[in-house]
C-alpha cells in the first residue's frame, strides 16, 4: 500500500518503512508524527483519490534525525563594473522521517 502526502509545500509518494527527507518539522528525534494531508491512497484494487484530501486517511511516521541539506551557492555578478559581485551560501534544514503505518480511515 502507498500514499501520496503533502508537507512543506511538496508532495511525496510513501510506503511503509520508507525513509526520506522533508522540510523541517519541529519534533525531537524518536518522536512520532502524523501526516493528515493525504492526497491519494493506492496499492490493492482501485486507488482512492481525494478531492483534495482523502477523508479520514493519515500516515504515521517517526522522526529519525534533524539534518541539513547540501550547500547551495548563489553568485551574482554584473559585467564590467568593478567590485560588483555577491556570493552567498545556504543549507536547508531538513527532517529525516521513517514511515511506520498508513491508515486508510
TrEMBL record:
GO biological process, one term: translation
Assigned GO CC terms: cytoplasm; ribonucleoprotein complex; ribosome
Any single Pfam family the record assigns to this protein: Ribosomal_L21p
InterPro entries the record matches: bL21-like, bL21-like_sf, Ribosomal_bL21
Alphabetic keyword roster: Ribonucleoprotein, Ribosomal protein, RNA-binding, rRNA-binding
Molecular function via GO: rRNA binding; structural constituent of ribosome
Nucleus listed as a keyword: no
PANTHER family listed in its UniProt record: 50S RIBOSOMAL PROTEIN L21, LARGE RIBOSOMAL SUBUNIT PROTEIN BL21M
Subunit note: Part of the 50S ribosomal subunit. Contacts protein L20.
Stated role: This protein binds to 23S rRNA in the presence of protein L20.
Protein family according to the UniProt entry: Belongs to the bacterial ribosomal protein bL21 family.
Protein name: Large ribosomal subunit protein bL21
Source species: Oceanicella actignis
Amino acid at each position: 500500500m502507498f500514499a501520496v502526502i503533502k508537507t512543506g509545500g511538496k508532495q511525496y509518494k510513501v510506503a511503509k518503512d520508507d525513509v526520506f527527507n522533508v522540510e523541517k518539522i519541529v519534533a525531537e528525534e524518536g518522536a512520532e508524527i502524523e501526516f493528515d494531508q493525504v492526497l491519494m491512497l493506492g496499492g490493492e484494487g482501485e486507488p482512492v483519490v481525494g478531492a483534495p484530501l482523502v477523508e479520514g486517511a493519515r500516515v504515521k511516521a517517526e522522526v529519525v534525525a534533524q539534518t541539513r541539506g547540501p550547500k547551495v551557492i548563489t553568485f551574482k555578478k554584473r559585467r564590467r563594473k568593478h567590485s560588483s559581485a555577491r556570493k552567498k551560501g545556504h543549507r536547508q534544514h531538513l527532517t529525516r522521517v521513517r514511515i511506520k503505518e498508513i491508515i486508510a480511515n
